[in-house]
Amino acid sequence: MWNAATCCVATLLAVSLGASAMASPPTDPVGTPLFSFDQASPSITQPSSVIHPDDVLRVFQPDLDPEPAFGANNIGLGQPGDDLDAMSFSKSSIPPTQEFIFMFAVDRATTGDVPPDPNLLDNEVSFNVADQAARGHAAGDAFITLTGFTVNGPVSRALRGSPDSNTQAKNQYDEGGHDFSAQPATSSRDYSSAPEDSVDSMAYEMPESARGVPGPMPAFFFSVAPMSPSLLTLPGNSPADIFVHPNPFIPGTAPQRFASAADLGLQSTDNIDALVVLDHDDNSVFNPGDLIFFSLSPGSPSLTGTNGIPNVSSNGAADIFSAHYVDPTTVVSEVFAPAALLGLINGADNVDALEIVFCSDPLVCGLGAGIRLVRGDWDNDGIVNINDFPEFVSCLSGPEGVDLQAGYDPVCLDVFDYDLDRDIDLADFHRFQYVFTP
Questions:
Q1: Which residues contact 208 (CB under 8 A, 6 or more apart)?
Q2: Nearest-5° angle of CA 105, CA 108, CA 162?
Q3: Rounded to 5 degrees, what are φ and ψ at 38?
Q4: What are the extents of the domains in the chain?
Q5: How far apart are CA 215 and CA 128, in angstroms?
Q6: How do residues 412-431 score in pLDDT, each as one tens digit?
Q7: Of the residues 103, 340, 382, 406, which has the fewest C-beta atoms closer than 10 A?
Q8: Is residue 320 a contact partner of residue 295, using CB atoms and an 8 Å limit?
Q9: What are the residues facing 358 on neighbouring strands?
Q10: How many of the other CB atoms lie within 10 Å of CB of 55?
Q11: What would the pLDDT profile of 217-248 be if each residue is shown by its tens digit?
């Protein structure tokens, strides 16, 4: 029978030193965008909350709570019950050869059900939608696709194998300062059953982030959730309408309608819940050359039926659609990136926020921007050494496997199960020794 005391390592340190539960931050992180939380988020509903579901939020520095970037009334919202559902700053036009990836958020019902990409897993970038949903806090994260796109569609890289997954680029809480300061206050490594904030819109606000070149503040585009009282006073009354404000940081200007549901080939009862606007001439008018990426919330009628968008996936709320204004009589709305291409294959999966990141190689971007779990490094100091050894001893299970129901810490498997066989034994100790720094 296996006994940790019989193992050659058990005669060393026997007392756990305690450790941080953090994962390792990205080596080349993407910036944290502006964002909003949905109405059910604990950061919104807690009695002491000073933020609301129609607030555009930012995190000024790590470990601080999110706070409004500008007043909701600046964009025609601010009534009790208003809920900002999607937002975008104009990206202007993007050259046809410019490659990008999508950064997206999901809702609480999303499970993903696609394993991490093997190339990323081999390089310690192991967190994705399916992983974070299983740990109980995917809705407060941001993920990036491992497929690249141009404005004409997906870019094929046939020799690389299947890219149909995603990787976690932002955690809901602190991973080296790259996060949304959201609840629960857990790392990517932790498991939690606590209520979770849900990021339901996001956008880069500065031209350097959005377009890659300096320039004036781009216009702000947004949509509003169906039951928002301000839909009665905005210049449009559908949750599938897109509104525009020339500069939300400056109050006093009323928003206008950029595109109606009908303009986009949608139904008035559809709900746009994720949005990226490429207003090619920056005139805040939906006209020839403009391109919009968007997602629809579950239950939107255009996801099904004879009047719906063609070729929608069976979990169409996780599809990314495009609406391309060709000429005054032609707007083409179609599936741009099917849900499976994002690594979202469960019937309940839903893309709930959307942004783009310029990237010439999705695998390289995923390796650099993905939150990492360095195997063997329990205390997250970037080195596998004697400080990690006590936790290895306490995690030893033997080759019979582990019983998570009996209280075994599942993080042990994350950190020390090198061969991914769901136990910690001598085979894992051999790998631990190999990377050990004296």
A1: 214
A2: 50
A3: -80, 175
A4: 4-24+379-435, 34-369
A5: 34
A6: 877 888 777 888 888 888 88
A7: 406
A8: yes
A9: 100
A10: 23
A11: 789 999 999 999 999 999 999 999 999 999 99
Looking at 107-176, list the stretches that DSSP marks H as alpha helix, in order from N- to C-terminal side. Answer: 118-121, 129-135
Question: Does position 91 have pLDDT exceeding 90, yes or no?
Answer: no
What average pLDDT score do residues 304-308 get?
Answer: 90
Q: How many whole angstroms separate alpha carbon 245 and alpha carbon 220?
A: 5
Per 3-state DSSP, the chain is made up of helix, strand and coil in percentages (nearest 5) of 20, 20, 60
Beginning with the edge strand found earlier in the chain, give each strand of the sheet holding 67-70 in spatial order: 67-70, 56-58, 34-37, 199-203
Token code pair at residue 355 = 């942004």
Q: How many whole angstroms separate alpha carbon 250 and alpha carbon 254?
A: 11
The residue to which tokens 């990136």 are assigned:
337
pLDDT at 323: 97
Give the pLDDT confidence of 96-141 residue by residue, as tens digits. Answer: 999 999 999 999 999 999 999 988 988 889 899 999 999 999 999 9
Q: Are 415 and 378 in contact (CB under 8 A)?
A: yes
pLDDT tens-place string over residues 379-406: 777 788 888 888 888 888 888 777 776 7
